Model the fold of this input.
Amino acid sequence: MYQAGVDIGGTNIAMGLVDEALDVVQRESIPFEIKGGGERTAEIIHEGTLAMLKRQGAGISDLDSVGVVVPGSIDPTGSTVINAYNLNFHNEPLKAKIQKQFGDIPVFLANDADGAALAELHKGAFVGCRTAVLFTLGTGVGGGLILGGRMFHGGLGNGCELGHALLVSGGEQCTCGNKGCIEAYCSATAIIRDAIRAMEKHPDSLLFERTMGRPESMDAKTAIDCAREGDRAALEVFHNFVDHLGSAVASMINLLDCERVAIGGGVSAAGEFLFEPLRKNVHAKSFFENHGSVVPAVMGNDAGIIGAAMLRRNEE
Amino acid sequence: MYQAGVDIGGTNIAMGLVDEALDVVQRESIPFEIKGGGERTAEIIHEGTLAMLKRQGAGISDLDSVGVVVPGSIDPTGSTVINAYNLNFHNEPLKAKIQKQFGDIPVFLANDADGAALAELHKGAFVGCRTAVLFTLGTGVGGGLILGGRMFHGGLGNGCELGHALLVSGGEQCTCGNKGCIEAYCSATAIIRDAIRAMEKHPDSLLFERTMGRPESMDAKTAIDCAREGDRAALEVFHNFVDHLGSAVASMINLLDCERVAIGGGVSAAGEFLFEPLRKNVHAKSFFENHGSVVPAVMGNDAGIIGAAMLRRNEE
Done:
């Protein structure tokens, strides 16, 4: 039997056929049609799934479930996309529309960050864990919780907004309207903000040289690369980032005593240059001596497909 | 059948016999003998329980379980008190010693803050909840988590240190060694610290008048009373406290999407003077419009006895 895993993004619908060993044995990537709405999206998912099954020499009777993740909020029953701004889905009853295409085959719907944590649980950094936290550091800070060995949807079914726990109450402005959220300190956007400030303050820095002093040329990779090359201004930004990320991770450890915290997203590509000082910082702030580990997330681009494909298993 | 609930404190061992309606039908309070260690403590618990059963016209065969909570850390198997400083228990195999006294009757051991959350779950503010957070504001900030409708011991069995999640990373010094923990902003101790600072800065304040300018005369109740009477210096301290407590509560709501957050401990006696602005503050910072509620904890002094008595039920 196969599970279909579908990761809907603003540009493409990435789909995969996942076998019992959790390998992605077939893939499809079909442009997302923003004007097509839920109806057309459901059709594309159905067509893509049939194409993958056919290439695999299998039929619809070999399909166990269809799991779909979206970059947005899902209602507590897992039926409706409340808001997915990139997809222009608002109160979109997506599950029912996909279900209509697939008849009796069970369809599951979840948030993509929650799905990413589920992918780590079944195939990645969280295998064997019952309590774990995934932070995905990108434009914002997303993430998901594993509690009791399952993906946690939130107590009221709203999901988890890890990026919007407060880290420096009253501090930097966050996009959500609060001041001092984890996202305002630990996202790639936060690194860029601080690197631009540092570059403007230190015109003799490598940060300035690499961007020719243009704020719009700054990105998180440039900032981290400058730090790696020993630029003092960039190192200050980087140390500050590590200190805040360390506080965010230690908060989860002190609060949930989790077995593992994984860090994913573009910033985590910095590798041991990030993880080595991060682990020291977290250890110093952990209340428990024998605290959980801090590791890179491993699922990368397949997190969506695998996480979506595992949604049925999460319900068992 | 009855459950014995035992709350070991540095001064007294408070015990109760709890019936099936969760009423405390008999009580005992016996001085804690710090020199007696675990052995003597176990004897006292046994003697006290027999005395309560006798007064109730019942016998040992009517006793279903013995639950014990202590102000300290418990090992993941619930057998050993790792550290309970007030009791001078260190790596004390308390469960086995109590078990020896009670023979076949099951004995359970837990941290008192976790037990308080369990008491709220079975009889108090969390009845019917599956996801809830208790903050107990006192000298420190304790608390407990209800996840999946049960008391949560932490993912690695170390428990939850809610007071030591970071709230203002890099901020006020905390007793744990970190800077900016929830405890450093939301405890009675934090109110006292800030009220003393305000009093020293404003010798014309009611805060100064009430304490005659003596730091050692300041307590949280005085500070809150002064705020209630409109003293500007005290109000600033109080608003700052509400803002930080609001951030701590909103963090739990954004992170866990919990159904309810309860606030207990001495400070919560401030009632609606605290809860009304706190709810507004939390609502403004909550990511989800339909977020969980913020309520006073209700179990008060019985939290220990009832929580301990419910430990068996928590395992079912």
Summary: The mean pLDDT of chain B is 96. The two ends of chain B are 16 Å apart (CA to CA). The first strand of chain B starts at residue 2 and ends at 8. Chain B touches chain A through 51 residues (CB under 8 Å).
